[in-house]
Design goal:
By secondary structure, the chain is α/β, with parallel strands linked by helices. 52% of the residues lie in helices and 15% in strands. The protein contains six helices and five strands; from the N terminus they run H-E-H-E-H-E-H-E-H-E-H. It has a five-stranded parallel sheet with strand order 1-5-4-2-3. The longest helix is centred in the first third of the chain and has 31 residues, at 2-32.
């Protein structure tokens, strides 16, 4: 019983330290990848601070998109290959319909070594909700 009383706190400490080290490892990606809300994203787009990427399907992109964006389909078979052709030193602004696919895309780009990727929280739905223009 005394061995168990000793092992429990030791195991708890090991768990805490391993969780902290995993969190630190992820922070390298977190520094390159961020999510901003619509107003801030719009300011960045208007300032032309980076390359704008729509990661929705070509059909969604054809319906409407933010002016000046390029379409690289997150669900496409060659998504990573197409993203890999981009200059990793540039800043990229990514968006999708609601923010889910673009968040996943931004994480992938961060893992691939891109220096700055900004995700639009709320996606193009939030963009249109704020009354910002889209191109058809």
């Amino acid at each position: 019983m005394k061995k168990f009383n000793f092992l429990l706190p030791v195991m708890a400490l090991l768990f805490l330290f391993s969780s902290a080290s995993c969190q630190q490892a992820k922070n390298g990606t977190d520094e390159a990848v961020s999510t901003v809300q619509t107003e801030e994203f719009k300011k960045m787009v208007d300032a032309k601070e980076g390359v704008l990427i729509d990661v929705r399907t070509p059909q969604e992109y054809a319906e409407d998109h933010i002016s000046g964006s390029i379409n690289i389909d997150y669900n496409g078979d060659n998504f990573k290959e197409e993203i890999g052709k981009l200059d990793k030193s540039k800043t990229y602004h990514v968006y999708c319909r609601s923010g889910k696919r673009s968040a996943a895309s931004a994480e992938i780009m961060g893992e691939m070594g891109f220096s700055k990727v900004v995700n639009l929280g709320g996606g193009i739905l939030g963009w249109k909700e704020k009354g910002f223009e889209v191109e058809k």
